[in-house]
Amino acid sequence: MKCEEIKPHLMAYLDGEIEQEKKGEIEKHLSECESCRKEYQSFVKLKEVTNKMRFADLSDELWAGYWKRIYRRIERGTGWILLSIGAIILLSFGVYQFFKEFLLDPYVSLIVKVGVSIFALGAIILLVSIIRERLFLFKTERYGEVEK
Amino acid sequence: MDQDQQLIVQLKKGKMKAFQKLVEKYKKPAFFIALGLVGNRDDAYDLSQEAFIRVYANMRKLNPKLKFFSWFYTILSNLCKNHLRKMAVRKNYIKSSMANTEMKHLKQRALSPDVLVEKNEIALRLWEEIKKLPFEFKEIILLKHFQGFSYKEISEMLNIPMGSVMSRLYYARKKLKDNLKDVFN
Ligand SMILES: [Zn+2]
Fold this sequence. Notes:
The structure holds two protein chains of two kinds.
Chain A: H1 3-14, H2 20-32, H3 34-52, H4 60-104, H5 110-138
Helix pairs in contact in A: 1-2, 1-3, 2-3, 4-5
Chain B: H1 3-12, H2 16-38, H3 41-57, H4 68-97, H5 100-111, H6 121-132, H7 135-146, H8 151-158, H9 162-179, H10 181-184
């Protein structure tokens, strides 16, 4: 085996993941090839150093509060969605009632009717857009590649 | 069915208790992987929680036959990748607008000396160098060294063949080793 082919297998050898039949081959190469042996030794050293590095743990309070915080965030998200849906239903009903009388009223001039209608339409579009943003915030992007 | 599979079946039926069990089981690896990837405890706490929330929001897509953690890892690493990208943009923006106090604040965040247990010189240097690695190298070093996943588990999490796990690990370690040359000699 050439050095270049051996190199990735040095990792498996180092991490104890080498297949039995490859093991002898690697050991033979290491005993014969000085440059690979040197490289392997420096990997051993790197591994020793990295194994000593440890991340500090969080406090018990933070771990204890971990689930609670997730639960609260989910609960709020759901609360928001329900609140918004309810608001839309009530609002649409109110708008519908209002327009039924307002637009049929012969004493209001046409220009005011048009103005108010456009204004209301704008308000509804804004509201719907905010709600949609909320909903999509909840389930975003990239799940295509997650489904393997 | 193993425990995770049972929990996923329960979760898909809307059982909050099952979701809680999954969170309790995987919160630590989730947090520490995020910490290694983004290098800041507050952000790691938030991002790992965000990943769990996305699992909940997308539970319909969960397949009990697939390994939960490798699915979860994909979500988590994407969140971390996006976070790093956003931070880099912000850094550039601040650099160009010369807001010094903001810059100092960002630097402090990046250093975050409270991340490591031992604060000896070699450990700090190693951590600095790991943070500088390209994302793909950094993640494989973290998964192997700090989480102790097997090659097979890593190949499932990163969705790459075993051969690629070995060669990527080789190049990642080689780069790290070369950057630390002065420490080793
Ligand atoms: Zn050789």
